[in-house]
Protein 1
Amino acid sequence: MGQSHGAKETHPVLAKPLATVRPEQLFEVVEAIVKVQRDHGRRDDRKYSRMKYLVEAWGLERFRAEVERYVGYALPEARALEWLSGDDHLGWHPQGDGKLFFGLFVENGRVKENLRAAIREVVERFAPEVRLTAQQNLLFVGIDPSDQAALEAIFRDHGVALPGTLPLVVQNAMACPALPTCGLAITESERVMPQVIRQIDALLDRLGLKDGPIPHVRMTGCPNGCARPYSAEVGLVGRSLNSYTLYLGGSPLGTRLGEVYLDNVGREEIAARLEPVLEAYKRERREGEAFGDYCHRVGVKALQERFSDREASYGR
Ligand code: SF4
């Protein structure tokens, strides 16, 4: 996903299917892919050393042929992929063997204080398998149904919000660690997202938009894009101290890249700058249409033009 400010040729890219391999082939194929990158990827400039630029320069077919040369056989064609859901399995679910698993929402992946104490107590008492999800949440696996109430009580007693008790836009959101954890951060992300996302939630409430699809919002503290902001319906990428580039038009499942809608948006202005677009979405959306899909259909450039007068008042 990563790109670099000031290096115009760098850009986010979505992955493309290369091959569908059998489980026993997986390791050697991955090893060959890494070797192709090691031997042919750019080494002269770190900004361009990502594998996606080699794939772009060569095309996927040449890249595949080189991987085949390393493994010594033809790779099977990639089966078409279709993503039907981005559900992170929060709450209780049967796991097929009489036991249950419990998905816990972890705001921006931050495990601290009361949450850390609650997780420790759950793990010590019930010894579940603990899995991390790609949206920074936790799954506690192998819970006996008779322990369901006791496990929930532990989280409740520590003041941890249970799934379903937080606004959906909060549960759908994600931010990277950024300051003070990440040495590459330009702006805040994880530490300010709780306020920013609640301002967006209040805006959705005020506009009467909480009954339909709720947008996925992602924030990062620099253009490396660790929280996948470029494929989110609303992406916020750290630009300079306290200001962000605002992307719109990604898909709810992260299968399409968004486009830059505004640059240098102050942190306190994020909700206000989204407001005209959300108002237009409310008026013009089709039945069940997600916010990102609406922005993509209407066109991010067209939205820029439509609201340029209103944007001029920000003087940027
Ligand atoms: S996106 Fe966030 S976590 Fe990733 S390098 Fe940038 S500041 Fe660090």
Note: The radius of gyration is 22 Å.
Protein 2
Amino acid sequence: MTVNVSSPLHWKESRHFSLNPKDPVFYQNPYASYKEMHKRQGPVYWQEYGMWCLTGFDEVNQCLRDKRFARLPPAGFERKPYPTHLKDFAETERFSLLALEPPEHTRLRRLVNRAFVSRQVESMESEITRLAHTCIDRFEASGEAELLSQYATPIPVTVIARLLGIPESSTDNLLAWSHSMVMVYTMTQSHQDELNANNASIAFIKFLKEQIESRRSAPDDKLLSQLINLQSEPDGPSDAEIISVVILLLNAGHEATVHQIGNAIASIILQPPDNPLWWQSKEEADRVVAECLRYDAPLHLFTRYAQEDVQLDTDVKITAGTEIALLLGAANHCPMSFDSASSFDVSRTDANHVSLGAGTHFCVGAPLAKLELRIALSVLFERLPSMQLAEEPRYRDSFHFHGLESLQVKWS
Ligand code: HEM
């Protein structure tokens, strides 16, 4: 990824710009446009989305933690309901952590945290390592591979299925349902995409109802059984809540991780390590992971609703109920917070990022995502040190889920 390419962003007024999110020049390299946005001080207005955007690291980081902003509009400013052809999709979101705010969010998040304890995540280390080796065993002899489908995709979905205690034979269905459902979050989906997302939701809900019934009669020590176990407590989760939580864990749990693994591999191959010891210590490998998360994150845009009138800066005041965009990818490349922000530098002293969010909705899966990344990268680069790109990596036509279409590599 180079930032010296031109940006298709056009300034209309001092802070208003036009930029088609489906322009390939943009989604292949959004960082060139972020560089343009950073030239203006304070929030900038994206005409195609009709929203003020925060692009600075401090501004985005503070807004994620600011109680005057939430994922839901304040009372009296209800969100536009989903159309009826998305009825079942809406059902999966009803109790999603991402569709709740305190106090409802606090209760459910606490229940999820209790089931999703770090001890359980850490105990996955050797299993994830074995899984990474098994994937490489399948393609090593051929001298080439398409790493997105052969490596980055199977690891996260298998890991989350094992954590939940869902049969691994169902991972193909889980992937297909998840791909269809996340289209609704791209804000550029077609009517057919929405119908597909709703059908996927129907199948996913049916599957999970069957899984809940089967765990109820034959519990194990996995996450789904633990959530069912919590139902015996006075504020325990309902079946509908468990279904929403599990769907969010499955969708969030692999879609972002797949693309972060792909983006990270490409970043590292394009900027080969100057330190051959990267993969020999956990601490150093964790620094590589942190820089990969900053340098080329998979999720670039989240929104928040103002809960009251807010003065965003001296010139920009927004009223209660207004939705604003937080550009996480831009914040990670903010020239005010990072020296040589567009350079991949594992030894940076200003290491930081907002790729996993912050505040109330900070990523529940952050420890798992970082563990998967550390193992997936270490095992791959240790086993195939001569790996090179076989073709230039191309990003998918999806600005919100910034990830590669394919990652073709070869080695000798
Ligand atoms: C590299 C991979 C990942 C990235 C970049 C990522 C990023 C994020 C971000 C930015 C948020 C906050 C959204 C907001 O504030 O509006 C979030 C929330 C969340 N993530 Fe992740 N995530 C990753 C992996 C995972 C994994 C592996 C899981 C679970 C297995 C997971 C589960 C969740 C959940 C449940 C939430 C909602 C938390 C809440 O609303 O309280 N994520 N993630």
Note: Residues 10-410 form a domain with the Cytochrome p450 fold (CATH 1.10.630.10).
Protein 3
Amino acid sequence: MKSFAIARPGSHAAAAKLAADKTYTLPVIKSGGIDIIDQMKEGLLEPDLLVHLGSIGEGAATISMEGGRLRIGAGVTLAQIASSPIVIEHCPVLAQTAASAATPAVRNMATIAGNLLQRPRCWYFRQHQFDCLKKGGGTCYAVEGENKYHAIFGGGPCHIVHPSNLAPALVVAGGVAHLVGGKRTSIPIADLFHTPDKGVRTEHVLEPGEVLTHLTCDAAPASGFCGIKEKQSFDWPLAFACVGLRVTDGTIQSAGVCAGAVAPVPWSLPRVAEALAGVKVGDDAAIRAAAVLSGQDARPMRDNGYKVRLLGVAVHRAALKALGREAEGLS
Ligand SMILES: Cc1cc2nc3c(=O)[nH]c(=O)nc-3n(C[C@H](O)[C@H](O)[C@H](O)COP(=O)(O)OP(=O)(O)OC[C@H]3O[C@@H](n4cnc5c(N)ncnc54)[C@H](O)[C@@H]3O)c2cc1C
Ligand code: SF4
């Protein structure tokens, strides 16, 4: 690993200035450091300045309700989100996605901003031997190679899945990222990420020097998450679903459904949402039928067709969780 300097700015604005400072070849923002340090160890990134956000006050690590919306500082950890009574009450899907991510040790360090902006886990990308498209090479090795964990929607020319648990939950809850250091001051989470056809080297639309200060989202009290994993800990999900419902008089009035680990961006499923609207909360057959629609436009690769079925199961269970019920047995 090459040597690097560390800066400890006292504000997000000062961090943004340092991140855009041309005196350095590659200044990089560091929050919890879980992904950044991994990338440095893997030889993917050689910064000469780490701009460490750990010392910033400004509400960077606090959770509150403001004007009916949830406000979460960029430096709030996944462990704080998972155990926050405010998040559990007002946006359970966010608490559940945070609780399910990684391991207790990782959740204690990992921040919400870093979770959204972490780089993909494609094994070809993470191995320095493979100079794939995302690293400026000429090939996506996943096309002909091992693609068990890759995208079934929205792939090409790169077929990563977006690694963040929290991003789909925030899409369902109308999340917004608030920024300093650039021309804009906010961006909806639904617009934060781009598909590989819009640029294969990056996953999000932030410019160098734009720093996330906090997130806001709507209260979504009837919301739920279901992730299906090979291991219960120390792993990313194979497929997961976040569902938010608006229910009155025992009927689902409207729904938001967003899938994760199946596409290069959080993957909204509007047809499933439409099919859920008008369904009686006790009508399991109709909820299951809506969930099955989630796989309709999937384009699996050689080894990942299993994700289509997993996603239907995850959507069904997440919808039941949003209604305050757990699925019985396997679907
Ligand atoms: C074993 C293991 C299992 C895991 N399983 C899961 C899982 O199931 N689900 C899941 O979602 N994640 C999982 N993760 C990933 C983990 O959650 C992320 O690596 C972590 O959330 C990153 O947060 P961080 O604060 O450490 O970010 P950092 O590593 O500090 O930064 C990550 C990126 O965000 C940028 N950044 C950070 N803060 C800001 C800011 N305020 N403004 C602008 N840019 C910023 C950094 O420049 C960097 O590019 C797992 C990780 C491990 C090691
Ligand atoms: S899926 Fe993307 S990151 Fe993985 S090998 Fe292909 S181009 Fe590289």
Note: The domain at 223-322 is CATH 3.30.390.50 (Enolase-like; domain 1).
Protein 4
Amino acid sequence: MAEVKVGLEVHGYLNARRKLFCLCKIEKDAEPNTNICPVCTAQPGSKPMLPSKEALDRIIAIGLMLDCRINSRLLFQRKHYSWPDLPAGYQRTISGSYSFPVGVEGSFLGIGITDVHLEEDPARWEPETGFVDYNRSGYPLVEIVTKPDFTSSEQVREWVKRLVTTLSYIKAVDPEMGIKCDVNISIPPAFLRVEVKNVNSIKSIAAAIDHEAARQERIVKQGKAVGHETRAWNEQLQETIFMRRKEQAMDYMYIPEPDLPVIDVSEDYRKSIAKTLPERPHEKKERYVKKLGIDATDADVLSSDILLAELFEKVAEKIEPVLAARWLRQELLRVLHYNKKELFELELEARHIIALLRLVESRKISEETARRLLEKLAEKPFEVEEYVKKEGLAIITGSADLEKICSEVIAANEKAVQDYLKGEEKALNFIVGQVMAKTKGRADARKLRELIQARIKQAA
Ligand SMILES: [Zn+2]
């Protein structure tokens, strides 16, 4: 694809229990118009309460995670427009010409962050029926505005994915309600911005960029100029649709909100939030690779979920990190996937995995046994060492027992032995599998393989 410049406005619902300016609850499945009060339905004479502390905590945390400078004074604005979803006729926001956004001049994974701000959500309006549900009116929203630093849809897709992971580390945004993006796209020579509104998934963001860039290229090739306009992404048609010319853009008549004071964010308050913030996913990944010698793919997966990352870090304090990484990324995730469970649903603790992997590390149990034990641990944790002793699961190493089982299996599988001698590797796997089954998985698979190979060669 030809040259393209992309900037994003990412909107998300803050993870909060109460609305921004009143005490109404946030409940996703509530009956329409049940979590409402005079403030969030803008009854005459009603005044907003001070913005909720949990929303401020979260928005400052987001700003800090994105390396923003946090303004010490926050000034809410009224953004006016006249739609049925906005009972007051204005939306309260810390954006617009006169405001001081919460965070400014940030950067995340090489992309500049212009600002991070906080605003209230309008109600949910159904234009077809005229129905309005005010439950959503007053939900706290975050808006993250980037500089037009992206140069491909693939880069945007990867960045948004990492942004979502990073916000999930601090549980800042409601994961079920997802994020929405407005995407600014421009191409040479004029780089005139076209804004595409309401793109609702990471997949759609990439599709919208590719479609819009191609549309603009066709216009430039025809020797015409791209219009300065706002378009909408149509999910069904998979194309951008004209909404309005920029010169017709709405004048929102921003004015400072007279019913709210300037909110002070003290140095102490900011520091108290900074103290609670975790290392970010990309920093964890880098540390895992550089300091612990973990494979980049393993490090990427382990750092994609903070619970998994924290579990790994605890286990890797006691167990060789590469072994720990392999077991968590491959075996634990396999068990979770098979049981259709999330990590937080398991009672399993780091000490159980440490106990299990100590036995693997010291070759007291076979990997096959360890896999089966991990499956059981995921169902309900138990003391691993005791269980191994009680059930007699310790590895069989070079004992007379193992030799005997090998001889029996080799004798009983004449055809497989012949096939192997003719060069069929699969036949050897079959014989190893048979012995493994007889030992109930208690043999060391690699040693067993060597042992069988030697015996067959002897016999031949
Ligand atoms: Zn309310």
Note: The chain has three domains: 5-274, 279-391, 400-459.
